[in-house]
Every structure is written in structure tokens, then in C-alpha cells.
Design goal:
Helix content: 40-55%
Number of strands: 11
Radius of gyration: 24 Å
Length: 519
Amino acid sequence: MSEPANRDYSRSRAVLMGTWEYADEDFNDVPAVERSFDRMDGLLRDPVCGPWPDDSIVTFRNRDTLGTTHRELISTLMEAEDVAFFYYVGHGIYDHRERLCLTVGDTRQDANFTAATGLPFDAVRDAFRASDARVKVAVLDCCYAGLATEEYGRLSVDHLPPGPGAYLMMSSGAFETSWHELETVADAQTYFTKALVDTVYEGLSGAPAGLTFDHIFGAVSDHLVANGRPEPGRRIENHAARWVFARNNAPELPPEPGADPEAVYREAYRRESKEGVERLPAIAAMYEGPAAAGHTPSMNRLGQIAEGRVRARMQGIEPGPVGGKALQEATQWYVRSSEAGDPVAPLHLGQLYEERYGNQDRALYWYALAARRGNTAAQERLTGLEQRIRLGIGPPGQPGEEHAEPARPDPVDRAPTLAVLAAVAALGTGVPRERWSAAWDGSESLALAQCLDVLVDACGGTYGEWSTLDEAEQACVLSDFIGLRPLRSELASTARRYYRTVGPGNLRAYAAGLRRRRN
């Protein structure tokens, strides 16, 4: 495939759509969206991506209403013969059928009007299907972006023409929100687009001369999750992962020993991701050079190697408990990294002191330090541990795991959602399906998922009292809660009242009583 600098984009079309000002008071204006829109526009016009000629880029910039947007989208993508590219940044919402809709200025929050006043992603999908482009790419930076993969999630026709295929990149899951920087931050942007554009401009050490979307997505995902942001998603069809999107601005060849610590670190991580576990000792030796030079991510990585997490990840298994010399070595690396100001290392230390040393006071200290340094995952653990100590209850039954940058961590374990929901479905709620569905726009699955999410927060959060319940107990409590038929507008307040009624510190005993009554 040709490099971006040599590709003729005159036969390609890109549609960039963004909305940051709204008439409906239910939507907040988001100036950060405008800056992200402009950065993506500038990226395509930059030589690092080709550049794309002006005639190949169509912008739907902060439109007040849909107007002819759908028609223009179809006609533009139908002109594409090589690459058809679509990007959206702004508020994403879903209608009464749980379909993703992209908002414009006068989009209404009321689910009955959502699809009529916003652009359903189905319309984007239809425009892609009408196009004969060889490569079809959609990048969505909005809340609920993961709904784009629901049901007929393909971007292309049933039988693709010869070529790489289609690539869908999403900033959030199906029922997750996307985040943006606060306006107190200079040149605030959305986190996802900022990470994507920065990655392309900076390049990736050790990667090929041409960066594919898979190269870029991996780096973006690593960066976002390591910093406590929502984990992005992707869907790939045929060979779209091999399509070259940008020139690699970073050094093409692997760095020599003694080179820039960040470059050596990136090369070590690249080898960790590509090579077998038998190469782990040599990879660990590569991290030691940057770590000795004060590079904190390398220190964290060595701590994770000592813990056995890296070996487990390379083997595709769950890491086991660590103790003895290995635990001591991991602790030492995390302490060194933390003393150098790293925001991730104290989170790891908090986990070790809580889960391995059994020292809650030291765990609180390290979690608090990480939280002060802006680590949101540490703040969740701190809040949960403080609540459990205050109530005098035990540790979480299934503690989550976080990894240091740039490793892609497993998502934080917000209670085993799918298992709990399946158990609730088996138990039954005692509420007529029709009445329950009507109260939640006809979607029982959406009601269960949102009730679970709000109930977890009301019960102390991911690592608070809720985390001390096993799956069967969680299912019983959730089933009991939804038996109240809480309205969506009152869901949070109802969950708080429910928890106060059960009694903080009494949740497990209450769950046991529910199980006895059901049996």
C-alpha cells in the first residue's frame, strides 16, 4: 500500500462533522469540541497524512439543524473511489430504539424526537454502503459511540470490492460517556481526539515508516486507559487494519542502547507485545537502562515484570499472587517511580499494600498520593477503601487491575455486569415486562444496565461495599432494587434512598436474606 506522502487523495473524500453549540438546554455547549474538530481538520491537511487536498474534505461545522446533512453525506461519500473517511465529535445520544444519533444544534434530548432531530448513525452507515471506496473509515468521538457496532454494524456492503475493507474507531462503549478537558485547561480538547492527533504528530518509535490505524489505535488506547480515561473501541473488517493513515514522525529504526530513554522504553514495549515469553528477560534488561536514567514508566514496567503481570499478559492468563523476593522487588521499583513524581506508581503501591501486605493505612496513603496527582483510578480505590474501613467490612471479592502506561489494562471490574444481568434475568423481577419496558422506552436491557451502574455508585462505588458481594448476591440486590420500578429521572436519588434503607455496612447480610427468601 502506498505511503501517505505518495497517495493521491483526489479520489478520496473525508466528511468532518462537529457540534459544540446547542439550542436545547439539556445539552451543554462544549468549546473543547470545536478545538478537537479544528485539530482533526488540520491533521488531514498536514503532510503527515498526505496531505488531503481541500477539494476532498467536506466539513459539517456546528450546524444549527440537520437540513440537507444526510443528503450531502451520501453524495460526498459516493464520490470516493479510494478512501471514504467520516469523523464526528460532539454529543452522542440514543433514541427509543437504542440507536446512536449524532447531534446538531437543535437536536432534542427527548427520545421520541432524537432520530428526527439528530443524525442516526444508520444514516452514516447507509452512506458508506452507497460508496464504492476501497477503504472506509469512521472515527466517532462522542458518548455511546459503541452503539455504532450494535446490530447492522458493518460500514460496507455484504461483498466488499477488492481492497483493505473498513475500520470503525470509537471513543467510548455502547453505554459509556466520552470525556473532554475542562476549560480551565489551556486549549482544552476532547481526550480521545487529542490523544489521536498527538499520537500521529509525535509518531511511534519502533513502528514502521507508515502508521496504520491499528498502530495508532493501540497507542491511543494505552494512553487513555493508563490515565484513567474511558477505553476506546474498534471494529475491523477484512484488511483495513493494514491501511496506512499517516507517516511515522518518530525514528523508524529501533533505538540503540544508550539512546533516548523514552525511545528505548517504547521499543521494549513493542517487543513485549510482539515477542514470546521466552524473550522476557532480554526485554526486562532493555527497561533497566531507561529506569536507571529516571524514566518512571520503565520503573513501573519493571515492577509489573517482578509481579508477574507482564508474563501473564504475554501468556494470555490471569496473574497469580506474588510474594517474597518478587513482591519486595516490585515494591522497590514502584517506590522509586513514585518518589520521582509518577502518578501511576503510587496506585500500584496502594494495591500491593491493600491486597498483598494487608496494610490498609499504607494503602490509603499511596492511593491518596496517586489521586492528588490526578489518577482517577486511584481515587475510585481510595473512596471504596475509606468506605469499607468506615463500615468495618472486608476487602473486595474481585479487585480490579490497572497497568502502567503504555500497557493496555483490563477494564476496571465494575462488578461482573454481564454475569449479574444474566442472573437477574434468570431470577425475574416480579414486575410485568410490559410495564417495566414502557417506563424505560421499551428497553429492559437498557434499564437493567443503567440501574446496575447507578446502584454500584450508590453502594460506595466499584471498590466500596458493593464489591464485597459475590455475583449471586449482587444479582439478588439488583433484582430487589429494580422491583421498585425506579423512573429514569429519579434513578440516582432512588438508589441512594435504597442504600440508606438497607443500611451502610449491612448490604451483604441483606443480600443473604434475599437469597434465603428466594430459595
